[in-house]
Amino acid sequence: MGASLAALDIARLLGRHFGDAGSLRTVRWRTTLGLNNAGLVIVHVALSANLSHIRADDPAGAGLAVEDARRRPVSLMSIAQSMGVPHETIRRQALALQRRGALLRVGPGWIVPAALLAPAPGNRLIADDAAALVALIGDLARLGSASARGIDPEALQALPADLVARLWNDFTVKAVEAAGDICGSVLDFGLFMTIIRLNVEHITADPPRTRHHAALHAIPADHERVPASLRALARAEQLPYPTIRRRVSALVARGLAEEAEGGVIIPARVLGSEALTRSNVLNVQRVEKLLADLKRLGSGAAAPCAHRRDHHCLA
């Protein structure tokens, strides 16, 4: 990235790259595990809560592969509050996840069992998450992110893949929880982000245009956005058409989306609003923290990957 772009421009570009990568991660997990969006978010939130008491540098292991006995159960009420979704909705989803083996009841709480990600194809999710994050950091370094450039690729490769995947999961959960307030719930924020992605995917696929729109005051104009059809949204979210229509109508009623010929867009006025700008700044801070954590952990990853037991490794 040329020096002409200000640090804030780079930060915004960095944040958007993580947002795009997060969307692809959601598709990977949802497709592999066969879960709907609500179920997948519950799994991610529960995973983060189950491991939150374990330090990332715990020598006994701190990634998504830690044994069930070390996982701290989380209540459905805590998950409901985190997602901004009624408790009864979470309870119904949790029971369905329990039947699929994606959630396990332990006393009064719930855990995501290690077995969900231990056999194939679950362990492939961990490896793919870690590899995708490593590749993303490399892309950000080439785009000019000083934080990404400060990470030694070899040290990053030496980290257990399940630890890298856990850090990305924690980052995603915190970012989505905070942003969910803008749309009313985590699930509605997910739909909001999907609309944005479909509106501008023709721009993000074009590097020069991506760089041009990286600046805070260079948000793509409404006429540059391709409206997302309700059927495309239903496919992307794997939800029934009536459900998507109802939820899109709610976003329109809140002034967060606008109907356009052929579908719906998230207009520039919303993306440039104070609330979204504040959210973007906070999200960039989370990205910077994630990169700093990876750098710190990577600098201490002296043991060869082949010598680490019970952890998936990147190398």
Q: What is the count of structural domains?
A: 1
What level of helicity do the residues show? Answer: 55-70%
Radius of gyration: 20 Å
**How many helices does DSSP assign?**
14
**Major sheet characteristics:** 2 strands, antiparallel
- Structural class, judged by helices and strands? mainly alpha
Sequence of secondary-structure elements: HHHHEEHHHHHHHHEEHH
Q: What's the total number of strands?
A: 4
Structure description:
- By secondary structure, this protein is mostly helical.
- It is 62% helix and 4% strand.
- The protein has a two-stranded antiparallel ribbon with strand order 1-2. It has a two-stranded antiparallel ribbon with strand order 3-4.
- Helix 3 (76-83) crosses helix 4 and helix 5 packs across helix 8.
Summarize the helices and strands and which ones pair or pack.
Blueprint: H1 7-33, H2 37-51, H3 76-83, H4 87-100, E1 104-106, E2 109-111, H5 122-143, H6 146-149, H7 153-157, H8 161-183, H9 186-204, H10 207-212, H11 230-237, H12 241-253, E3 258-260, E4 263-265, H13 268-271, H14 274-299
Antiparallel strand pairs: 1-2, 3-4
Helix pairs in contact: 1-5, 1-14, 2-8, 3-4, 5-8, 8-9, 8-14, 11-12
Quick structural overview:
With 315 residues, the protein is mainly alpha-helical. It is built from 14 helices and 4 strands.
